[in-house]
Amino acid sequence: MKSKSNIMKSKIRTLLLLPFFALLLFTSCQEEKIDIIEPEEGEALVAESTLTSFISATSAKDGSADNIIDKASCLSVELPVSVVVNGLEIIVDSTEDYKVIEAIFNKFDDDEDRLDIVFPITITLADHTEIVLNNPNDLANLIKECKDENEPDDDIECIDFQYPISFSVYDADFQVIDVITVENDRELHKFIKRVKERDVFASLNFPVTMVYADGTTKDVNNNEELEKTIREAKDTCDEDDDNDYGDDDFTKERLDEYLKICPWVVYEFKRNNQDNTAEYKEYALNFKEDGVVKMRARNGDILTGTWNTRVSDRGALLKLEFDSMADFTLEWIVYDIEYGKIKLYEVGGNRIIMKKNCDVIFDVTKERIKNYLQECLWRIARLNIDGIDREKEYIGTPFNFLENDVVKLRVNGELIEGTYSVTPLNSEGFILKIVLENRPELQLQWYVTFLEPGLIKLEDLNHRENKMVLERHCADGDEDINYIVDVLTSSWGAGWDKGWKVASYIDKDVNKTQDYLDYAIAFSEAGSIKVTHAVNDIAIDGSWLAYRNEGLYLGMHFGIEAPFGDLNHRWKINSITENRIELKDYNANGGIERILVLELEW
Hints:
Low-confidence stretches: 1-41
Number of helices: 11
Mean pLDDT: 85
Number of strands: 41
Distance between the termini: 33 Å
Largest sheet: 10 strands, antiparallel
Structural class: alpha+beta
Strand content: 35-45%
C-alpha cells in the first residue's frame, strides 16, 4: 500500500471535507486530464469482500429514527406525513415532531396508545430506494421483512464516512479512466452496489475520514486500516432500534456514567415557558462522583450543587439542586439522548439542551489563558463592533501571542506589533487587553466568556454587544495545510503571465469569469497576496490563510478594489491539485452560492 505521505506527493490531491451542503449528483473529473500514481492492484475493491460489505452496510439508510411512526428500522417514512395520534391528527414535517407524538403517548399512563398513518406515503428502504405506498397493507408487508425491535440488523450505525470521498475507476488494463466523487450515503450505497455487481472496477482514494457515533473522527489511509476501523467500531454504540422516540431505554447506571464522562454545555434553556437561552447559554455542568455537580457560569464563577438520577414510569429522571440557581433546580425528565447531546424536559414549559464538550475548562486561571494564547496562531472568526460585522477585514490576518506580552498581527504578509495582557477582574473572571496601533476595534477590554483549547469567546466589558471570537490555528504538523501552502506559493515571484488565474467564477447563476481576465494572483509563504494585471499598472495587495475548521478552508482578503473585493471570503476547499484549486461558498442551508476555480499557468 502507498503511505499517506506518498499519496500527498502525487500529482493529484483530493481533500476530504465535512459535508454541509445539499445532495449533489455524481460528478466526474473526465473533462480535465488527471495524472494519478496508480495504486497497487490489491487496493481495488473486491465485489465479494468483507470491506465492500462493510462499506455497503455503513452507507445503508438507517430507518430507526422514525420507529415511533412505522415500528420498523429497515425503512423510513419520508416527511411530511400526516398521522392520527390517540384521535388527534398532526402533520409531522420534521424530526422534532417525533417528540410531539411521544408527548401525546406519555400524557396518560392508563390509556391505550394508537397511531394511524394517513396514506398515501413515500418510504425509503435500507438501499435508499423510494416507494409510494397507498394503504396500510402495503406497509405491513414491507415491515414483515424487517428485523424485530432491537434485534441485530445488517446496517452499521456506529461509524460513518465524512463526505465527500472519491473513487478511481479503472478499465480492464487497470488504467484510471474516471474519478467519481460521492457526496452522501445514498450515492455511496448505490456506487458500492455497482462494485458488488461487478459493473465497475474501482478503488477508494485515501486518506478518508471516518466519524464515530460520538462525533470524534479518525483518518484512515488504506483498505486494511479502513476494514479494521469499521470492524472495531460497528458494535460500539447503541443503535437505538426500539420503537419509541429517542434513546430513553437505558438504566440508571448507564445514565450516570454517560453524565460523568465529560462536562456538558448548555445550548438551549427554557423555564416556565420563558426562553432563558441568552442568560444561560454556554454554562457548563460537570457531574462528579458522590452526587456533586459543578456549574461554571460564563464569567468563570463556579457553583456547587447536587445531582441524582432514577428511572420511573415517566422514564429516566435527573434531579438538580443548587442553593443559588433556582432555574436549574428541578427534577428533569431525560426525554432524549443523542451522541454528544442530552435533552431534559419537565411539564410547564421547562427544557434544557446540553452538548458534551470534553475540552471545557472549569479551573480558568491567568496562566492557563496565556498558555492557550501562546500555543499557536489565533484567527479572528467573529468580530462585531457597534452592530457592524468587522470580521471580514481580518480574513487571513492571524494573531501571534508571544511569551513576553508581545502580540503580532499579520496583515498583507507584514507583522504589526503590539502588546497584550491578561488581568483578573475582581475574582469575577479575566480581561484580555490588546494594544495595536490604528486598530481601535481591537483595543477594548475583552472579557473572557468562554475558554477551551481551540476556542476563546470575548465580550467588551463596557459594551457587551461588542463580541470577538478567536479560533486556534496550528499549521505545524498538519500535512493537508502544508500541502496547500506548498501548492499556492509555488508561483511566488513570477510575472503576471506565470501565476494563478481565475479559470471560473460562478456567482449563483451568473458567470463572472470575464471580470478577471489578464489578472494573475501570487501567494507568499508570509501570508500576503499580490494581484497584477497584464496591461494596466494595477497592483492589489491582500492577505490569505489556509486553515482547518471541520474541513479545509482558504481565507482571502483583497481589500475593497473591484473586482477582487467580491472574492473576500473564507472559501471551503473542495479539491486541490498542483495546478488547480476549486473553492465553494455555501449558504446557511448548505446550498452552493458561489464556485471559484483558480488554475496555475506557467
